[in-house]
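User: Predict the structure for this protein chain, please.
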Amino acid sequence: MSVKKCLGQRSLLSKILPWILLGWSIFSPIPLPAAANSLLAQKQSPSKTQACDCDSSLTKESSDFDIDSHWLTAQPAVFELSDVEPTDWAYQALRSLVKRYGVIVGNADGTFAGNRPLSRYEFAAVLAATLKKVEQSIVKDSNQQYTQQDALVLQRLQKEYKSALEDLQQRVGNTETRVTQLQENQFSTTTKLQGEQIIALSDGTDAAKTVISRSRLTFSTSFNQKDLLVTQLESGNNGGDAIDLAQKQKSNLFGTTGLLVNGGGLDYAGVNFDFQLRRLYYTFRPRPDLALTVGAKMLPRDFIDRNRYADNEAVDFSSGFFLRNPLIVQNQIDRNGGAGAALLWNPGGGKWTLRSLYIAADANQANANTTVGGLFGDRYQTSVEIEYSPSERIALRLQYTNALINNTTINAFGINTEYAINNNTGIFGRFGFGSYNGFNSAVHKELDLHPVSWAVGFGFRNLLLPGTVAGVAVGQPFLSAGVGNATQTNLEAFYNLLLSDNLSITPVLSLVANPNNDNSKGTIWQTTLRSVFSF
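Assistant: Here is the predicted structure, written as structure tokens:
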């Protein structure tokens, strides 16, 4: 409203006001108060800073108006009405303050409320937020006339909507109490289901084109947020690939299910048709920096020899050789798993971490020969790993494994390292050496071997496209003079393209020269298109 209109209204009211008062005194039995109640606790003199319209700019011409003038109709208390209408002065006054002070209100678009009525609780919530914002302005700029003016408006709103504010405060207090109680007792036993389906098309030297499938369902259950029960079921189509076929044609020393080591076939190949138990173990934390695991179906790969660039056949490298050190993680234990226990200790959450495990592959077999089967008989593996990670960019792991597999005693030492050159590029490596001694009942041969294993590679993130994962690696799984007439050499490159949160496709190129350390097979070339669907 303009100043001119304000003055016109004021002149008109001054002319008709005496007649209104006379009529009131004659016909009304209710005495007219001498003056309206002030916004303040005590009487206030008319302010020279108040305007006749809350949205108007304050000027000298409008400074004679008192916002508590007796021609402003007194509003009923909030308990006397259900909603605050857009035509009410309180609605208009509060909307003006919200706009002026930039108060954030609860509407999705951040606006006040359009032209719809506000419930008493909605109005009280906006009023409470406005009070807080105006108080901040008063502290910062208390000498400004507009701040004092708005404070007077808010005092009247506080008075007339006192019960709503008190009710709101009580509701908030009750809500906070209930939230605290829920936070203290919010956790209940929960189970999370995760599914993964790998389907791969593979083609290679001296082999037919194949389709390889592997399905997994994983149930992760927690009872108190400090523990985890893992149950995993697995099935496949028993699919094979060219590399594994070449390694199986003779003694299968280095195949995916190799008797000595896993030498480089597709890690998701060779899974049986029937659903079978793949993992079953329980992890708990007696203290924050200590985790203990016991289970009937555990895999060494879950607890030692992890590496951020080469660790998951569904994400990075497909070859089992590049996923773990074949001397440290024994294939005869890891492929099918076994019963045992594992420990992880990271003192004070610092730079050092200790991991250890004991897993027996035939713990379920109660043989009369106590040296074979059972929890402490042939086949078993025990390992220790010490990790030093001075920063998130680098990690160094020193490893030792002792195993008894098929009557052969194995001792091996390993090094696992990774270094992030930058956020998108890193280098990794694994190195191992050890000894195999004794008559091996699986290969029917006396062994006295001192093999060396090594692999080195690069990992890439966001290569060409955001969200991609790529890598290339080369290595030799079992360098030993006592096995074969050559040394097997592996190379793999992949590019993982994430199509959605649940689907990825990965072209993979693999090369294996002299499979099984035998030069008669030459070089096996293999291409694979891996697709992974997960939920």
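Confidence is low (pLDDT under 50) at residues 1-81.
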